[in-house]
Amino acid sequence: MIKALFLIFEPVAAWERVAQSRRSFGFLFTFYLLPMVLILAALEGFSLMEWGRRQHISGQVKIFNAGEMLVYEIVQSLLTLAAVFICAQIVKALCNTSYLRHNFTQAFTVAACGLSPLFLLRLLDVFPAVNPWLTWGVGILLCATTLYHGLPRVIQPDPSQAFGLFIMCSVLFASVTGLERFVTVWYLAGRIPFAETFLSHLTQQ
User: Fold this and answer.
1) Which residues contact 181 (CB under 8 A, 6 or more apart)?
2) What is the mean pLDDT of each run of 10 residues along the chain (205 residues)?
3) How far is CA 4 from CA 17, 101, 130, 133, 145, in A?
4) Do residues 6 and 13 lie in contact, with contact meaning Cβ atoms separated by under 8 Å?
């Protein structure tokens, strides 16, 4: 989380350190991405059990029990990790040209660090009064700003292709994370009844 703040407020220096450190995939996943996801899950899980979420149809506030919260947070965490991996894989595909090849670790570095401002803004999702689409929108804008400084330092693309690559990666990040946000927001608002029925049945086993 602290590194995410540096990537927002001191992006050039922060990305220089990221590029020079050349962390392995295992290190980035275990000590950077996974802790952020687990912290977000724990805080939001507390919020769901303490304050709940207002349902779209009934207008009532639903307080989640421990079983429902646990299953939901596991699924959301897996979706978040999947979004990062999907972004990394597509970044790798976009960056690999006929004369310049990049490995998955470089692409994963861009995805994990580039999306960290969004994860930081998701801390505000703990408060039910905060619109989740607002946190996503501000977060993805910060991601784009961060990515602008990060891509040239980690990927080092050809200067003639750098801006186009930045645009494509920014659209990619917004699309993938927007889809993940759509699914979770609709579920918490009670707009996916079959998922609620399945989850209730699952937690009662």
Assistant:
1) 132, 133, 136
2) 87 93 94 95 95 86 91 94 95 73 88 95 94 96 94 86 90 96 91 66 60
3) 13, 27, 21, 20, 12
4) yes
d(C-alpha 60, C-alpha 189), whole Å: 10
- Inter-residue contact 54 to 128 (CB < 8 Å): yes
Q: H/E/C letters for each residue in 6-23?
A: HHHHCHHHHHHHHHHHCC
Paired strand residues for 53: 62
Domain boundaries of the chain, sorted by first residue: 2-203
Residues 6+ apart with CB under 8 A from 55: 61, 62, 189, 190
DSSP code per residue over 141-176? HHHHHHHHHHHHHHT---HHHHHHHHHHHHHHHHHH
CB 165 within 8 A of CB 94: yes
Phi, psi of 54 (to 5 degrees): -75, 135
**End-to-end Cα spacing for the chain:** 36
Give, in degrees to the nearest 5, the angle at Cα 42 between 38 and 43: 120
Taking the model in full, what pTM does it have? 0.90
| 51-64 b/e (C-beta count within 10 Å ≥ 16 → b) | eebeeeeeeeebeb
- Enter the tokens of residue 102: 């990049």
